[in-house]
Amino acid sequence: MKTILITGGAGFIGSNFVKLMLDRHPEYKTINIDALTYAGNLETLKDIDTNPNYEFIKADIRNREQIEDIFRNNEITAVVNFAAESHVDRSIEDPEIFLTTNILGTQVLLDTAKKYWKIDPADKYSTDYKPGVKFLQVSTDEVYGALGETGMFVETMPLMPNSPYSASKASADMIVRAYHETYGMPVNITRCSNNYGPYQF
Prior knowledge:
Elements: E1 2-7, H1 12-24, E2 28-34, E3 54-58, H2 64-73, E4 76-81, H3 88-93, H4 95-117, E5 134-140, H5 164-183, E6 187-192
Helix pairs in contact: 2-4, 4-5
């Protein structure tokens, strides 16, 4: 059975995605890891606790030993990285936690995935990976900066983050891109905007 690792799956968007995966893709095992900080809420996932294709692990993406254990004990074929410190106001008050979680935590995930997904991890020049693996970085449109009263962001715009939060997400995106360009890792980056709905903090 294919196994997808969802990070930050007890948060607002992540928990909706966990439920979507279990509903639409019963061929996958879904592992949800979350550090359960202020925005993580397991109550939103109580109705799927008994699903045999679902497992929750309390873990911090910055903790390399925890992430290694998860990869070692499971055949992870995809990572969807929702885990992040968010909210601009909080990043203004305490930028360090945003930098360590959003940048270094993402790098720990990338590095561990590379180790377990590369066909020859000892060869630093090899860009051959197991078939079907993918790292999906869930980012934000805030990496583009601010709009005026009119207009819209498009993917070709330069990154112009204006807060510690958006700067940390832009930095994480660049690390993800670098792992693709340097190591050939199969990645995608999404930059969604104005999310709202059930389970929002």
